[in-house]
Amino acid sequence: RVLWQSISALQKRYSFVKCVVYTGYEKNASAEQIFLKVQKTFCINLKEPVEFVYLRGRMWVEPRCWPRFTIIGQAIGSIILGLEALLKFSPNFFVDTAGHSFVVPVFRWIGGCKTASYVHFPTVSLDMIEKVRGCESSYNNSYIISQNKFLTSMKLNYYRLFAKLYGFAGRRNHVVMVNSTWTHDHIAKLWRARNIYIIFPPCNTTSFVELSLQRRGNRFGIVSIGQFRPEKDHKLQLRILATFLRKLSSQEAKCVELVLIGSCRNKEDKDRVIKLRQLAKSLHIKDNVRFVVGSSFQELKEEVSGATAAL
After folding, report:
1. How far is CA 63 from CA 54, 141, 267, in A?
2. How crowded is residue 287: how many other Cβ atoms within 10 Å of its Cβ?
3. Which one of 140, 168, 198 terminates a domain?
4. Residues 225 and 188 in one domain
5. CB proximity list for 297: less than 8 A, separation 6 or greater
6. DSSP 131-185
7. Which of 42, 108, 202, 289 could be bridged to 280 by S-S, CB 3.0 to 4.6 A?
8. Tens digits of per-residue pLDDT, 236-276?
9. What is the predicted pLDDT for the residue at 131?
10. d(CA 42, CA 81)
């Protein structure tokens, strides 16, 4: 949404600006199809058409390409992808909204571009480093590593080295934008960059204010909205729900439903949804969980309007 809202704002304010989007989509996804999806998902109508530059090297930034040393592998892959992008189209101003910070030096030094980044979530955060230091098992720190002091020390050094490289790449930006105070604090410490601006994600609440507060019968609905990415920790949400349901009577438990709403960026995210369904089944809560993948904005509003609580 940030990408398309920013393009819409640029078109309205600066008529002379030509917006070009680098995309990993296949060419069989036409510009018209992409625009229709943007309109359906975000209710954003673009004033002028946008040109798309299709990149073939998208697989270099996919996690499946780097099963080990993923973040450093993706950093290298993003440089390769950035070179392809620059060869196909060299802009005057480059903005990274996809979190590929190592592309920035490529566009600044080789392309001679002015550069900016909008950071949603730091690739490596101080929290991640602290979890490794504290031998805490999580989505990015396997149980085997967390229980081994030598492996923990190796991973800690790996993260520290990456954090320095990450900061070096981030400081090549002329302007840095972040989506929250939390992200600002991490980026300020990791990148040590000047000109960091907090620009909260565009969230139009007008249509939500108009929603009815009438709930559906005795249903206790919980909605969780977010992409099916590892850091969202949907597994934890399912385990918490299972613990909660065990404290209820069978009749009360039937009224509870958790609706996981989100989109999938790639095959890894789709596989993650499949595994989450399997986890719900193994926890005996599959009848209390519903997955809504790739919903339209209208469908999202309907789910929110019928919910009692939200995560």
Report:
1. 20, 15, 10
2. 12
3. 198
4. no
5. 40, 41, 42, 43, 207
6. HHHTT--BTTB-HHHHT-HHHHHHHHHHHHHHHHHHHHHHTT-SEEEESSHHHHH
7. 289
8. 999 999 999 999 998 999 999 999 999 888 888 899 999 99
9. 80
10. 27
The average pLDDT across 188-208 equals 85
Q: Is residue 190 part of a domain?
A: yes
- Mark whether 145 and 262 lie in a shared domain: no
Triad 112, 78, 229: Cα angle to 5°: 130
Residues 6 or more apart whose CB falls under 8 angstroms from that of 23 comprise: 34, 52, 53, 54, 55
What is the band of 36 on the pLDDT scale with cuts at 50, 70, 90?
confident
227 and 191 assigned to the same domain: no
Query: Are residues 70 and 157 both part of a single domain?
Result: yes
Structural domain harbouring 248: 206-310
Per-residue tokens: 91: 């802009």
Q: Cα separations (Å) of 191 from 114, 131, 183?
A: 18, 20, 11
Residue 269 lies in a domain: yes
For all residues of the chain together, what is the average pLDDT? 88
* Residue 294 to residues 40, 64, 131, 227, 305, Cα–Cα distance (Å): 11, 22, 32, 9, 18
Please tell me the total count of domains within the chain. Answer: 2
Pairwise pLDDT comparison (5 vs 215), residue with the higher score: 5
Residues 236 and 274 in one domain: yes
95 and 187 fall within a common domain = yes
The enclosing H or E element of 118 equals: strand 114-119
In the numeric block, the tokens 């490529």 are attached to 106
Place of tokens 């926890």: 283
The answer to whether the predicted template modeling score (pTM) of the entire model surpasses 0.90 is: no
Same domain, 246 and 213: yes
Please check whether residue 46 lies inside any domain of the structure: no
